[in-house]
Design brief:
This protein is an alpha/beta fold. The chain has 19 helices and 20 strands.
Length: 491
C-alpha cells in the first residue's frame, strides 16, 4: 500500500494548522497584550510574540501578568483597609519646621494610595558602613524584651551574619517572640540557603518564606514577583530599614569574590511613631504568608525625646496595590523640586514618565545629580541602565560613577533641602511594578543635613562622567546597551 499520499496530506494539514495557530496567536496578542499596560511594555511583548511566536507566548503566559494570586490580593486589600481605618487622624507633625507649599499634596497622594499617615516626633540615624550596620542591628536584637520582627529579601547564615543569628537565638532563649521572613527565591539563590533554613529551625524562631514558588504545594505566582523589603523591628520601639540584606557584603558568590566586589548600602534606624508604620508592613507580609494577623503589635510607638522633630511617612508599594505607589511618589517630588535633586540608585532603569521628570528638572536649571556604580553585578540591568546616560547627560544631569570594585547599592534621593526618601526601592521598572518595596519619606533639616554629608562622601570618591567621554565608548558597548534597554520593558 502506498502511504506517501497520506503522509503528504498529514504534513500539509499540520503545516496549515501551524500557520492558522500562528495567525490566531498574533491576532489574540494584538487584542489582549496592550490591555492596561504601558505602550512600551506592550510593544516589547508584541515584538517577542511576533518574532518568536511560540516561545514568546509561553514567556508571556508565565511572566505577562504582574498580579499576585487572588488570595494574596484579597489579603492585601483587607489589611490595607485595616491600616487606613486604624491610623486615620493620627497624623502628628512638627510645628517647628515649616513645610514647603508643595509637600501637603504629596503627603495626601501617598495616603490616598495606601500609605501610613505622616507622623512627627521621630529620630533617625544613618548607617552607611556595611559592618557597622550589621553590628548595630545585632546589638539591637540583644535589647529586645517582647518581640523581634525580621524581614529581608536575602537572609543568609554565613561568617559575617552569624552574630546576628546568635542574637536571635539568645532572644528566643529569653522568651522573646522572634518572627523571621525571607524572600523564597532570592534567598534560595544565595549560597547556604538550606543551611540557613536548618539553623532557623534549630534556634526556635518562627519563620516563613515570602512569595514561595512551590508548584508541587500549589504555592506559585509569576516567579519574578518578589518581596524586596528589608526590615527589623524591636518591640515596636525601634525600626531599621533601607537597602541592606542580611548577608556578607560579597553575597558569598564566587563571581563576586573573583572580581573582588563588595556592596555598600544604607540603613536607617528610626525611633518614634514611624516605627508603627514600618511594623505595619511586617504585619502585612506575615499575614499574607501565615494567615496570622498581629493586630496587637501594630500600635503606635511614642516619641522618645522632646527634640525628636522629624516628620516621616511610610510608603509601601508592590503588586498588591492598584497604583505604582513608589513611582507616583518619586515623580511628584521630582516635579515639585525647586533647587536640586540628588539620586542614588544601583539599578537605574526609569520608565518614560520618570525619565521626563528628571530631564525636565535638569533642563529647568535645577542641580540634578545621579550616583551610580562604575561596575555592575547584573549584566542586563547594567547595560540597560547605561542606555539612558546619553539622554541624561544631554539634559544636564551630572552622573557620578562610584568606583570599582564597590557596588553602591544604597537607594535614596533628596529634594531641595526639604525631603529625603530612603528604602528598598530602586529607580527601575522592576521596583515600580514587580517588587514589594518600602520607601520612607522624611522631612526635617537634621536628616537632610546628614544626607548631604553622605552625598558629599560619595562625591569625594566618585568621578564625574562627561558626555564627551561617554560618546567615545566602544561600539560593542553601545549595541549591548541598546539591546538590554529593550528587555527592560518586558514586564
Amino acid at each position: 500500500m502506498d502511504l506517501s499520499g497520506i503522509d503528504f496530506s498529514f504534513t500539509a494539514v499540520l503545516a496549515a494548522f501551524l500557520v492558522l495557530l500562528d495567525f490566531v496567536i498574533r491576532v489574540l496578542a494584538l487584542i489582549y497584550v496592550p490591555r492596561n499596560r504601558r505602550p512600551q511594555t506592550a510593544m516589547a511583548w508584541l515584538l517577542a510574540i511576533f518574532f518568536i511566536p511560540y516561545v514568546g507566548i509561553l514567556l508571556f503566559l508565565i511572566l505577562g501578568s504582574r498580579k499576585l494570586p487572588k488570595g494574596r490580593r484579597d489579603k492585601q486589600s483587607e489589611i490595607n483597609n485595616f491600616i487606613l481605618d486604624t491610623t486615620e487622624g493620627m497624623d502628628q507633625v512638627s510645628a517647628e519646621q515649616p513645610w514647603p507649599v508643595w509637600l501637603k499634596p504629596v503627603v495626601e497622594l501617598n495616603r490616598t494610595l495606601g500609605a501610613m499617615p505622616l507622623v512627627g516626633g521621630n529620630t533617625a540615624k544613618l548607617y552607611s558602613e556595611y559592618q557597622e550596620s550589621l553590628d548595630a542591628m545585632t546589638a539591637e536584637v540583644g535589647t529586645a524584651q517582647n518581640y523581634v520582627h525580621v524581614e529581608f529579601y536575602i537572609l543568609s547564615l554565613d561568617a559575617t551574619t552569624t552574630p546576628f543569628f546568635d542574637a536571635l537565638e539568645h532572644a528566643v532563649e529569653r522568651g522573646v517572640r522572634v518572627r523571621v521572613l525571607l524572600d523564597h527565591l532570592a534567598s534560595l539563590r544565595a549560597p547556604g540557603y538550606f543551611k540557613t533554613i536548618r539553623h532557623l529551625k534549630k534556634i526556635g524562631v518562627e519563620w516563613q518564606v515570602m512569595l514561595p514558588f512551590q508548584p508541587l504545594k500549589w504555592k506559585f505566582q509569576r516567579p519574578d514577583l518578589r518581596n524586596h523589603r528589608k526590615l527589623l523591628i524591636i518591640d515596636g520601639l525601634v525600626a531599621y530599614t533601607g537597602s541592606q540584606n542580611m548577608v556578607d557584603a560579597s553575597y558569598n558568590k564566587s563571581s563576586n569574590l573573583k572580581r573582588g566586589l563588595k556592596w555598600k548600602d544604607l540603613m536607617v534606624r528610626f525611633e518614634g511613631p514611624i516605627v508603627a508604620g514600618i511594623n505595619a508592613l511586617f504585619i502585612t507580609d506575615w499575614y499574607s504568608e501565615t494567615d496570622e494577623l498581629l493586630v496587637r503589635e501594630g500600635a503606635l510607638a511614642q516619641p522618645t525625646a522632646p527634640d525628636a522633630v522629624l516628620d516621616a511617612q511610610v510608603v509601601p508599594s508592590g503588586p498588591g496595590f492598584e497604583g505604582e505607589n513608589n513611582l507616583r511618589l518619586f515623580n511628584s517630588l521630582l516635579y515639585a523640586a525647586q533647587e536640586r535633586v540628588i539620586i542614588t540608585s544601583p539599578y537605574f532603569v526609569p520608565d518614560d514618565s520618570m525619565l521626563y521628570a528628571i530631564t525636565t528638572a535638569a533642563q529647568s536649571g535645577l542641580d540634578v545629580q545621579l550616583f551610580v556604580s562604575e561596575v555592575g553585578d547584573q549584566a542586563m540591568v547594567y547595560h540597560a541602565q547605561r542606555s539612558y546616560y546619553e539622554t541624561l547627560l544631554r539634559a544636564g544631569v551630572k552622573i557620578w560613577l562610584f568606583p570599582t570594585p564597590t557596588v553602591l547599592h544604597a537607594k535614596h534621593f533628596t529634594i531641595d533641602d526639604e525631603i529625603a526618601v530612603i528604602g528598598s526601592s530602586n529607580m527601575d521598572m522592576r521596583s515600580f511594578s514587580l517588587n514589594l518595596e518600602i520607601s520612607v519619606m522624611v522631612h526635617g533639616a537634621e536628616f537632610i543635613a546628614d544626607m548631604r554629608e553622605l552625598e558629599s562622601e560619595y562625591r569625594a570618591v566618585s568621578r564625574e562622567l562627561t558626555l564627551d567621554e561617554w560618546m567615545q565608548r566602544p561600539r560593542r558597548s553601545k549595541v549591548l546597551d541598546n539591546i538590554a534597554r529593550l528587555t527592560a520593558a518586558v514586564q
